[in-house]
Design goal:
mainly alpha, 229 residues, single chain, 11 helices, 2 strands, 2 domains, elongated
Length: 229
């Protein structure tokens, strides 16, 4: 009897190890099906609403949040993903914030998700307040990031204009003397980039000959000879 019981226990354990648990069965394909099946006919056609939130909260769990965030880039599921995330109430708040900061989720989509949580009667009053606060926090992070991006774009434009001005100086022997070696290297590297090349990147023999000539002329300021000879 004991040996039979031991054998049964071993077989049961082996079967359990091979059978996927609900968590391990989580997949983007399954989550996608659940999201799409939660759509209902409304005034503007098939879409998502309060009924969708209720259904999604019953069919999804916090373990599905990573899969939901992965599906956020699918524009056809964009709104559905927001509703699906909102259906998880508090469990989704911090993951959505992190996904927005890491650019896995658009800031506006993240804010819309917070709005859904903040107005969902299925979420606790405390959770709704947290969602309101998180929306404000996301706005601050988004505005700061947009400001950094704008500043970086402005800096890059100024750098490009400066390099172009220095490049024109190379055409005048007297003005060329005012350029430092670093400024000459910068002009040379920008010229290579415009040609789709890099200093140590792959080149054909003809390209190598051309680039060597450019280096001697732009950086070393050696006596120039036509680069096609």
């Amino acid at each position: 009897m004991n040996s039979r019981f031991a054998l049964f226990t071993f077989v049961l354990a082996a079967f359990s190890a091979l059978t996927p648990s609900p968590a391990s069965g989580t997949s983007e394909a399954r989550v996608r099906r659940i999201i799409l099946s939660s759509r209902h006919l409304g005034a503007h056609g098939m879409g998502y609403g309060t009924r969708s939130l209720t259904e999604l909260s019953k069919r999804l769990t916090p373990e599905d949040i990573p899969a939901l965030i992965s599906l956020a880039a699918d524009r056809d599921l964009n709104v559905g993903v927001q509703f699906a995330l909102a259906s998880q109430c508090e469990a989704a708040i911090l993951p959505v914030q992190e996904a927005a900061i890491q650019h896995k989720l658009d800031f506006l989509d993240a804010s819309d998700t917070m709005d859904l949580i903040a107005t969902s009667s299925a979420c606790s009053p405390e959770t709704r307040n947290k969602a309101i606060q998180m929306h404000a926090e996301l706005d601050k992070v988004r505005d700061a990031e947009y400001a950094r991006t704008e500043q970086e774009t402005k800096r890059k434009a100024e750098d490009d204009a400066r390099v172009q001005r220095n490049g024109l100086k190379l055409l005048d022997p007297e003005q060329a003397k005012t350029l430092t070696r670093e400024e000459r290297l910068e002009i040379f590297r920008r010229s290579l980039a415009a040609m789709g090349l890099t200093e140590n990147g792959p080149m054909t023999p003809d390209q190598k000959k051309l680039v060597d000539g450019m280096y001697r002329s732009m950086v070393l300021d050696e006596v120039k000879t036509p680069l096609n000879q």
